[in-house]
Write a structure and sequence with these properties.
- This protein is 79% helix and 0% strand.
- The chain is mostly helical.
- The protein starts with a helix and ends with a helix.
Length: 211
């Protein structure tokens, strides 16, 4: 191994270690309280070392967000891989359940996605990094939109705009996930997350079919 290759490997390893420390810090303490100093202390490096790899705390969060989005898209693509054996309705349900399972298995990544949506990260990170986040965010919705379009072409769904319909499905299901995240709301609605999610999924699928 050449000196340049060894240095590149060491640099990649240090970057992973910083992200590992940042993930622990932000997931344990929330996304607003920790500072770059906190991440540096957790990673046992100097603050200056952090800035050799990341320009800001927002950039660190954006890279953690990309990790979460990669996991989500991977899970959604996995349920789409045997698509020819499924109807469009079955595929929509599988995609929706993949999203639910992602949120249950990776709640911290889901909270980060929600926090990123509400924040002003676009102004705090490079346009290139923001474009990466946007592109990865769109992949799941594109999978859903293609599935809805397949259902419309087969005559199973009655929608004029598959992209808008997919957005409506996403909005309804995402609303359930956010709403039911608080135990008090579950008490008020006399339901649990899985039951409410399934009921909402049934309603939106019925809407796709009825037009």
């Amino acid at each position: 191994m050449s000196t340049a290759q060894r240095r590149a490997r060491e640099k990649a390893q240090r970057r992973r270690e910083i992200l590992d420390a940042a993930r622990q810090e932000f997931f344990e303490r929330g996304f607003h309280r920790p500072t770059v100093d906190d991440v540096a202390a957790r990673a046992e490096v100097s603050k200056g070392t952090i800035y050799l790899y990341f320009e800001s705390r927002e950039e660190i969060l954006a890279h953690l967000l990309l990790e979460g989005l990669d996991l989500l898209v991977e899970q959604m693509k996995a349920v789409c891989s045997p698509a020819p054996a499924t109807t469009a309705e079955q595929a929509v349900r599988q995609l929706a359940l993949a999203y639910l399972h992602f949120c249950q298995a990776h709640p911290s990544y889901f909270r980060l996605i929600m926090a990123f949506d509400r924040g002003r990260f676009e102004e705090s990170i490079s346009s290139e990094l923001h474009q990466q986040v946007l592109s990865q965010s769109l992949q799941g919705l594109e999978l859903l939109a293609r599935t809805v379009k397949r259902g419309a072409e087969a005559g199973d769904f009655h929608v004029d705009d598959s992209w808008q319909a997919a957005g409506s499905v996403w909005a309804a299901l995402n609303g359930v996930l956010v709403l039911m995240a608080h135990p008090l709301r579950q008490q008020l609605l006399r339901s649990d997350l899985e039951t409410m999610f399934e009921a909402t999924l049934d309603l939106v699928v019925r809407g796709l079919k009825d037009g």
